[in-house]
Amino acid sequence: MNRTVVFVLCLFMLGLAALGTGCTNQKQSNLTSTSSSSPTVTRTSTSVVASSDNCIVCHTNQSTLEKLATKVIVTSTETSGEG
Amino acid sequence: MPPLEAWEKVLVSSDFLNTTHGKLSCTTCHGGVASATEKDAAHQGIVKDPNAGTACTACHADIVKTSADSMHNNLTGFKTVLSQRGGDFSNPVLVKAFNMSCNGCHASCGQCHVSRPSYAGGGLLSGHTFKKQASQNDTCTACHGARVGADYYGEIAGASGDVHYMKGGMPCVKCHTDAEFHGAVQPGATRYTTATGPTCSSCHPEVLAGTSGITQHAIHGNKLDCQVCHSSGNYKGCANCHAGVDDKGLYYRTTDPTLFTFKIGLNPSKSTEHPADYVLLRKIPTTETMLDSFGTNLLPNFDAVSTWKYTTPHNIQRITPQNQSCNSCHGHPELFLSTGDLGTTASEADQKLIVPNPPGKQ
After folding, report:
1. Which domain range does residue A29 map to?
2. What percentage of residues in chain B have a pLDDT greater than 70?
């Protein structure tokens, strides 16, 4: 019997604790969204910036680029005269 | 300017990686696939020359906004004169010709501040480090070198160069400002109808004010452009341009050998900024048939615009052959444009530039 009472009391206390936490979070959220003078929460961007590691590995290495870079011809050999 | 090897054009320096721009992800501006480890896969969707509207505007919105309508970006001057010659930019054939030919002179933000211009073969400057002020040799005269640069630096055989560089060491940006490079212009403008171009009187106001104490300035006033007396000799012109696409699909352009002339004529481009009656004229390569390989009659009103163009040679000297005495100019009718100079690719409008009675002609 006592164990049951203690168990129920524990559940009750846990519930109160949970409610209290929820209220606190709600309060903070309201502050953040309505009060410009009290920026208590600073949200940071969650966008993912792609790593450039793979690009940099090749593009900072001369010997790699000497093997991979290709000459692009865009002007005809028929071009003549000064422009 | 020696050409760059293919690898040199895309070699990024480690110094760049520590700059503000270098801390951005490569794909932010260039696209591509950052996670790929093979060249072709990594370069899928790559943007070699990032668009200002997407890559630059977040931090440089003011400049991007005006440069979008600047001559370097959209070649307003070319469009103006082609339209004046009857060019119809709703005609896809002319648009194709323009894009393949004229548009080679388009300069993006990156082509001045990050790499050599595409017109000069491209290739990163300083390992991708951004240059707030474009490089005079790798950027300005990479495009404006054959004529302007050669004059200015005194590279033409027998020429004396320009005193502003040869003695003054003045860089291009001393006279040509950001407002000229990035400034928006209205449709129908040319570089000689904008208020942002340099003027001699900015540094030499005493000449127009009549307080220079030089008799010739008082006599000629503002009837003569400064260059008429102070251009130090022959300057370059081009003639007989034709453009097209070869059997491999590559663009080509041909012109006659370079002309070296000094010709005084009537001002074809009178404006508030350039009001002189008498100016120097330069032969330009435009011909009635220059775009015929793309399609015929693309310039149906060719004769509306002259093929001798207002010019401001960059070979200025205080003392020149034509200003040493009155007779140095007034006794030399050959200095003035005449019918005999017009050649076979002339426009009817050229006739209007001939000085009716050049001094010294009997």
Report:
1. 1-36
2. 99
